[in-house]
Write a structure and sequence with these properties.
The protein has 428 residues and is mainly alpha-helical. It contains 20 helices and five strands. Strands 4-1-5 form a three-stranded antiparallel β-sheet. Strands 2-3 form a two-stranded antiparallel sheet. A hairpin with a 2-residue loop joins strand 2 and strand 3. Helix 2 runs antiparallel to helix 9 and helix 6 crosses helix 7. It is globular. The mean pLDDT is 77.
Length: 428
């Protein structure tokens, strides 16, 4: 592992990408502590901790923002508006032919979809910012905004504009990491946010009860046992044998070759978890508009926690596992590429039969991977409902899956680039 890291810093191009990624993540964490003008910053955090928002759906949103929501910092909206916009457009591509055609145009089409996603992110960020402003001024927090020294409408505009600007900066930082850094910027930002809350969660778990040390030790032990299982499932593959017939290339006769087509058990990675979380906690984002409407608060809490949340989490994770897999892996294109290159699956006819065979394999191996993710995500929430341990809530199944998945994706990306420069990777 250390040798792989040392090799990564020997390559100038790779070293630059790593430093850009680390620098942007450090800049993001700085923004998570930069207060929004017009917010009584000193009383904000204590008001959040003593209010009902410190538990329930907003606690999860605060976790995904790296604690920025509780401090009402410039990056309080987090990456969720951007993720929600991506979900909307990816689902629209499946039902709107014009968007689907645009996605198939290649790089130019993807640029247009990305631009539309940015516009939608601005709209969602504006909605969220106004909603949080209503929340901050509600009786739940009990904060006094009268001592700022400016007219109320100016304060409101400054607060909303700052939050929306912060969300746009986060979106830009994530895209810069994806394009010029290592790994997926969106996933890495969520990873850093979750990790930022680890020290506080550990301290609160130890100090929270008489048996805090024992509960914390057991929780950490269980997490350490689960991580290798997650890694095993994440790296699991179904290898479909591929045979290439003899063919003439120029003046050379290429001999028959045998290889395989690897299909991951969890092709979608951590995306189903992130998408499901974004949808389940979206009602909580809407409910902040109406802090005094009890039925809306109850609905948001019911969707974001309890048995309804557990059932919906399982359903949505399985759904998005299939949905996202179908977006990133096209059996028909794979079968067509095999046919054009002279490859075939032994015992399966080329063309449509090959595509159906690959699709059938994909359907069969996606289900156990999706169910595994759903179980890991839901079981800790059930345990938290009975133990009320903050460490389990903050670093339950969803957080662990995201952290392990993002870490593995980033290391795999780094390893592939190391091998391009003829260096030994992290995995042997």
């Amino acid at each position: 592992m250390l040798k792989g890291i040392a090799n990564a810093f020997r390559v100038k191009e790779l070293r630059t990408k790593i430093l850009i990624t680390l620098g942007i993540l450090a800049l993001y964490r700085f923004g998570a502590y930069l207060p929004v003008p017009g917010i009584p910053f000193r009383g904000m955090y204590s008001a959040y901790e003593s209010s009902a928002a410190s538990v329930g759906p907003l606690a999860i949103l605060n976790l995904f923002s790296g604690g920025a929501l509780s401090r009402v910092s410039v990056f309080a909206l987090g990456i969720m508006p951007y993720i929600t916009a991506q979900i909307i457009f990816q689902m629209m591509q499946a039902v709107i032919p014009s968007l689907q055609a645009l996605a198939q145009e290649g790089e130019s089409g993807q640029k247009k979809i990305t631009q539309y996603t940015r516009y939608l992110t601005i709209v969602l960020s504006l909605i969220n910012a106004i909603g949080y402003l209503f929340l901050f001024k509600s009786s739940m927090y009990g904060l006094d905004f009268s001592n700022i020294g400016f007219p109320t409408w100016i304060e409101d505009i400054v607060i909303v504009a700052t939050l929306v600007t912060g969300a746009m900066i986060i979106m830009w930082l994530g895209e810069v990491i994806t394009q010029r850094g290592i790994g997926n910027g969106m996933s890495l930002i969520i990873f850093v946010n979750i990790m930022a809350g680890l020290p506080t969660a550990l301290i609160q778990s130890v100090m929270g009860s008489e048996n805090g040390i024992l509960i914390t030790a057991i929780t950490v032990l269980v997490i350490l046992i689960i991580i290798p299982i997650i890694v095993y499932i994440e790296r699991g593959q179904r290898r479909i044998p591929i045979q290439y017939a003899k063919r003439v290339v120029g003046r050379r006769i290429m001999g028959a070759q045998a290889t395989y087509l690897p299909i991951k058990v969890n092709t979608a990675g951590v995306v189903p978890i992130i998408f499901a979380s974004a949808i389940l906690y979206f009602p909580a984002q809407i409910a902040v508009f109406f802090p005094s409407v009890q039925w809306m608060q109850d609905f948001a809490t019911g969707i974001s926690s309890g048995w309804v949340n557990w059932i919906l989490s399982v359903v949505l994770i399985v759904f998005f596992a299939y949905f996202y897999t179908s977006m990133v892996f096209n059996p028909e294109e794979t079968a067509d590429q095999l046919r054009k290159s002279g490859g075939f699956i032994p015992g399966v006819r080329p063309g449509k039969a090959t595509a159906e065979y690959i699709q059938n394999v994909l359907n069969h191996i996606t289900l156990p991977g999706a169910i595994f993710m759903a179980i890991i995500a839901v079981v800790p929430s059930i345990v938290f409902a009975f133990t009320n341990n903050g460490l389990i809530q903050s670093f339950g199944g969803t957080s662990i899956l995201i952290m392990v998945g993002v870490a593995m994706d980033t290391i795999s990306s780094l390893e592939s680039q190391l091998k391009m420069h003829n260096y030994e990777g992290f995995f042997k």
